[in-house]
TrEMBL record:
This is Uncharacterized protein. It comes from the Bacteria. It comes from Paenibacillus haidiansis.
Length: 300
């Protein structure tokens, strides 16, 4: 068994707080982009100033989807390789459907709507695969997107706090051995006090201090690990379970037969199927589809 020794460099990602644009709820899971960079068109500015009363058209508020959420190293590496060399609008569309369809923020609280958005996102992924990728690329891309969708379906909400969370993803750094152990995760789970002390030591280093306590903390935790071999066994079981969930989850998709031959056909077919759903207000799906099309057609 090999344990990652470069602990200090890997620790910060353990303590990164995931942001939720809806402050009333907290989403925990992958590192989610906050979409802070928003371009507002003149029409949107006029509406905000009270010079109009209509609903904003799709595309008048332009979000930045240049950043993709972080998942497992395998998923991230696959997407990076598949999207390398593709037109920038393709990568933006992929980032859009991941963050808006698969793992939308807390503003989408209805589980039925979240499910419909996820299924629509899988249809959008198939459109990208069929129109922008080779056959081999398409197979890998859809497999990767299915794993992200499977991750999205692990979302649970605490009825008392309203806090939403997802299954814990264990990241193995690229090039790390198969038996890699995430010390950061083990410390956070089994010795939170040591984890807190490491955080304080890192802050001390950031502020110009020596951070000398880190070595002592890590040596003490190593001794605790040796005394508790079940920690490693439980970690292995967790990682195996996560892998099974991501690779074996089957998702029923009401939009899977949508015509992806070209954008016009895709939009028409999807709209027909959306109109046949039971949602009283279908705008959340139609506007999502319109935004997806605008990105790929470079009109936004």
């Amino acid at each position: 068994m090999k344990i990652e020794s470069n602990v200090i460099s890997s620790l910060p990602r353990l303590y990164t707080t995931n942001r939720d644009t809806n402050s009333t709820k907290l989403e925990t899971g992958p590192a989610l982009p906050g979409h802070d960079k928003i371009e507002i068109s003149e029409a949107a500015k006029r509406l905000a100033a009270g010079e109009g009363a209509r609903e904003l058209a799709v595309g008048e508020i332009k979000h930045n989807f240049s950043v993709r959420p972080i998942f497992t190293s395998e998923i991230d590496s696959s997407l990076n390789q598949l999207l390398n060399g593709k037109p920038p609008e393709v990568e933006e569309a992929v980032n859009f459907l991941i963050s808006q369809n698969f793992i939308p923020d807390g503003s989408v609280s209805d589980e039925g709507e979240r499910a419909a958005l996820l299924e629509s996102g899988l249809a959008q992924a198939k459109y990208i695969a069929d129109n922008y990728m080779t056959e081999g690329e398409a197979d890998e891309f859809l497999s990767t997107m299915n794993r992200i969708a499977a991750y999205a379906q692990t979302r649970t909400v605490d009825p008392k706090t309203g806090q939403a969370s997802y299954i814990e993803l264990h990241r193995r750094p690229e090039g790390a051995p198969e038996d890699y152990i995430d010390i950061d995760y083990l410390m956070k789970k089994y010795d939170p006090e040591a984890s807190r002390k490491i955080t304080e030591a890192l802050k001390d280093i950031h502020n110009g201090g020596s951070g000398t306590s880190i070595t002592e903390i890590m040596m003490d935790f190593s001794r605790k690990m040796a005394q508790n071999p079940q920690w490693i066994k439980e970690y292995r079981a967790e990682t195996e379970n996560v892998d099974k969930v991501l690779k074996n989850t089957k998702i029923e998709n009401r939009f899977e037969e949508a015509n992806t031959s070209n954008m016009a056909s895709f939009l028409k077919d999807m709209d027909n199927q959306i109109q046949n759903t039971s949602f009283e207000n279908k705008d959340f799906l139609t506007r999502n589809m319109e935004y997806f099309a605008l990105i790929l057609e470079k009109k936004i």
